[in-house]
Amino acid sequence: MRLRGKPKTLNLLELRPLRSVDWERTEDGRVVLLVPKFRHPFLVRWLVPLLAKPNLRVKLDARGSLIWGLCDGSTPVREMVERLEEEFGDAAEPVYDRIGKFLRKLEREECVVIEKIHEHRSVG
To answer: In what order do the strands lie in the sheet with 55-59?
Structure first.
């Protein structure tokens, strides 16, 4: 996971992903990501207007849809794990590996931005 500054070992549970692409929900409650085919400014300006479909449509399964719905920038991965376990029980296993791989893939495809939770400490 890429974060600004020096590379550090990150605790997955302390991260909070934020959606960065458009999406829609299907009639059965599943999520479809609308991932731009091109992101380079030149291509976006000159090529995308000529395309009938400027986005790739990535359909998520029920588990992916649940996780995506929680990628609001304020929900920590720790809470996502709990929700996935509540909703899917044993079918969520291996839950940490599943969420970690899913979030890395979303970040690599620039669908989410990953932020570390900042602890606020009072001075005094």
So the answer is: 22-25, 31-36, 55-59
Residue 112 scores a pLDDT above 70: yes
* 34 lies in some domain: yes
Is 81 in contact with 13 (CB distance < 8 Å)?
yes
Inside any domain, residue 39: yes
The tokens describing 68, both together, are 């995506």
57 located within any domain: yes
Characterize the bridge pairing of strands 15-19 and 112-116: antiparallel
What is the rounded end-to-end Cα distance, in angstroms, of the chain? 34
Residue 48 located in a structural domain:
yes
**Per-residue model confidence as pLDDT tens digits over 29-79:** 999 999 887 665 655 566 656 666 778 889 999 999 999 999 999 999 999
Distance CA(101)–CA(118), nearest Å, equals: 23
Higher pLDDT, 23 or 12: 23
Number of domains in the chain: 1
**Site of tokens 């395309």:** 51
CA gap 55, 48 in Å, rounded: 9
Q: Which tokens sit at 20?
A: 């960065």
